[in-house]
Amino acid sequence: MKRCLPVCLLLLSFSAHGALTKWVDAEGKVHYSDEPPPANVKAKTLIAPSAASGVPAEKTYIERETDLKKSLKAREETEQKAAQQQEAALAKQKYCSSLRANLTTMEKSPRIASYNEKGERVLMDETARQQQLAEIRQRIAAECN
Known about the structure:
This protein is of the alpha+beta class. Among the domains are: about 15-50, no CATH class; about 90-145. It is built from three helices and five strands, in the order H-E-E-E-H-E-E-H. It has a three-stranded antiparallel beta sheet with strand order 2-1-3, with no helix packed on it. Strands 4-5 form a two-stranded antiparallel ribbon. Helix 2 runs antiparallel to helix 3. The protein is rod-shaped.
């Protein structure tokens, strides 16, 4: 029994790959067969083998796994790109809010103090304050609108 099963399976597999042909012999008799007709007879193929039938063969496990990995990688890349864009938008939003807070502070405070290289406290004069205000406004107009 163990020897018979592989032989039967082998024989069955041959019939699955043959094409069905129709041909008429010299006497006018119609024949249907999966074997090729004699050489001098015109034959018509009715059913082509599965590989030539135009029906795509089912993908193998490896091909499906490769496709899955490709789609997962593409999805991961798009998610990373979206996360990076979101981080950049948040960083820009924080930067702009910081610039606006600095502008508000500079506009409301007549006396602004800073520290020089020696660590001494120095008050900003009005021309430097106006220059700083113009620079902050210019940055806001260029980067935050």
